[in-house]
Amino acid sequence: MPTRTIAGSEVDVNDEGFFTDPSQWNEDMAVELAKESGIDELTDPHWTVIHFMRKEYDDKGTGPTVRALGKTSGVTVKELYQLFPKGPAKMAAKIAGIPKPRGCI
Amino acid sequence: MAHRIVILGAGTGGTLIANRLRRRYGDAEASITVVDQDDVHVYQPGLLFVPFGLARPDDIVRSRRDQLHKGIAYVQNPIDRVDIEAQTVHLGDGTELGYDLLVVATGAALLPDETEGLTGPGWGEKVHTFYTLEGATALAQSLDAFDGGTLAVNVVDMPIKCPVAPLEFCFLADWFFTDRGIRDRVDITYVTPLDAAFTKPVAAERLGGMLQERGIELVTEFNTGEVDGEGGRLVSYDEREVPFDVAAVIPLHGGQPYVGRSPGLGDELDFVPTDPGTLQSAAAPNIFALGDATNVPASKAGSVTHFEGDVLEENIVRFLAGQDLDASYDGHANCFIETGFGKAMLIDFNYETEPLPGHFPTNVGMPLLKESRLNHLGKLMFQWFYWHALLPGRDIPGIGADMPRAGKQTS
Known about the structure:
The structure holds two protein chains of two kinds.
Chain A: E1 3-6, E2 9-12, H1 27-36, H2 44-60, H3 66-72, H4 77-83, H5 88-96
Antiparallel strand pairs in A: 1-2
Chain B: E1 3-8, H1 12-24, E2 30-36, E3 40-42, E4 61-63, E5 72-76, E6 79-83, E7 88-91, E8 96-98, E9 101-104, E10 109-110, E11 127-128, H2 133-145, E12 149-155, H3 165-179, E13 186-191, H4 201-213, E14 217-219, E15 224-228, E16 233-236, E17 241-243, E18 246-250, E19 253-254, H5 257-260, E20 287-289, H6 302-320, E21 333-340, E22 343-349, E23 358-360, E24 366-368, H7 373-390
Parallel strand pairs in B: 1-2, 1-9, 2-5, 9-20, 11-18, 12-13, 12-18, 13-14
Antiparallel strand pairs in B: 3-4, 6-7, 7-8, 10-19, 15-16, 16-17, 21-22, 23-24
C-alpha cells in the first residue's frame, strides 16, 4: 500500500492517489490536494461538497455519483462541474480524502 | 388467514413472480394481487428492432392481464404511494390495498426532462429515444428518411436498462445504412459517460474493437449536460460538443415517482435499496424487490430479473413460513448482443465474474463473446421463451439461476 505526505502528515493512498483511510484526512490536506488538482482556493461551495462527500461516505460506505450529488448536496450538477472541472465525483472524493467512488455499472 | 401478497408492477418481474407464487400457494393459503397502471406489456428487447423496421410495434406488445395466471387479481390503477408502517398501498383513485408481503417490481422510469433541452425543440423529430414504443416508432420514420449526415447515439448517464442496447443500436445502424447503400454518407458516433465502450474490461475491449471495425466513432467520458435539438449538438458539462443530424438518446433513468412519494422506500434516485443476495428490501422485512426497480449492482435487464425470480420465490416462501432467507442471487446475467448482418454475440456474467470468452452453458454450447449466426437465432427465438416460459414462471431447460462456470475461459 503506497503512502504519501500531505500537509506534513503521512497518509495511506491507493495507486491513483485516493485515500484508503478517511480518518487520516484533515482540512489542511484538502487545501493542498485542491491546489494539486488546479483549484487555487477552496470556496464555501467547495467545502459544502467536500463535507457532504465525507458524510455520504460515512453513511453509505461509498462516495456519491455526480447525479446523486446534484440531487442531494444542494449544489446543481452544472455548478459541480464549475467547482470541480475534471469530473466532480472523482475530484471531490480525492480532495475530501475518501476512497474512489465505486460508481455505477 | 391467507397471506395477502401484493405485487407492484406487471412487467417482467411482477408477472413472473406472481405466476410462480400462484403455483406455489393454493387460494386458501395466499391471495395474490398485481397492480399496474395500464394493460400494455411491452417485450422490451424488441424495441431495439423497431427503428430499423425489423419489428413492428404490434409484434412486441401484449396485454399485461393476459400474462397472469388464473387466481391472480389484477388491479389497473396508478400507484400513489406505499405506507410502510401501515402496510398499505395507496392507489391513484383513493383505494387502499393492505398487504402482508409486498413485492416492488415497477422497474425503472425514463427521465428525459432531467436533461436540459432533451425534450425541447427537435424532440420526436431529430432527437429520439428507442427506449419507449412511441420513441422507437418515431425513430423508425426518422431513419427511414435519413439520407446522410451524423447519427449520434448518446447515453446520458448510468444506470440504464440493458447497458448493451445502445451498442447494439450502433451495430444495427451500421448494417441498416450499409444495406440501404448509403453507409459512406453516414457518420455514426457513440457517445458514452463511461471511459470505454462498456463497463466490464474484457467485453469493453472486444466491443470497442467492434465499433472500430465498423467505422463507428467512440466518444468517452462525455457527461451530457444539454441536448440542443435545434442546433444539432450534444454538449457535455465540461463544454465539449458532438454534432448530430439525428440523435438517439438514452435518457436518465430513475425508479418510479411513487417510490419517492413513499417515505423510507427508495434512495435518492427512487430505486429501492435491496439486499443483492436475498432481494429483501432495506425498507422493511416484508418488502422485497426485483428487476430494474432495485439498486442491486447488476445490469437492469430482463435476464437479471428472470434469474432473480428463482431466488425471490424461495425467499418469499421461507419468509412467510417464518424461516431464515437462505436463497442467494449471485448477480447472474446473460444477454445476446445483436451485432448486425444477421449475427449476434452472447455474454454471461455475474456480480463477481465479468463476461468472458468460451461457450455457454458448457463447452459444447453457444459461443461467448464471439459473433455467430446461432446467437442471432437465439436472440430471435428468445421472444417466444419470454411469453411462453419466462413470464409463466417456468424454467428454461439448461439455464439456471446460478452462473455456469464450465465453458468459460478464465485466463
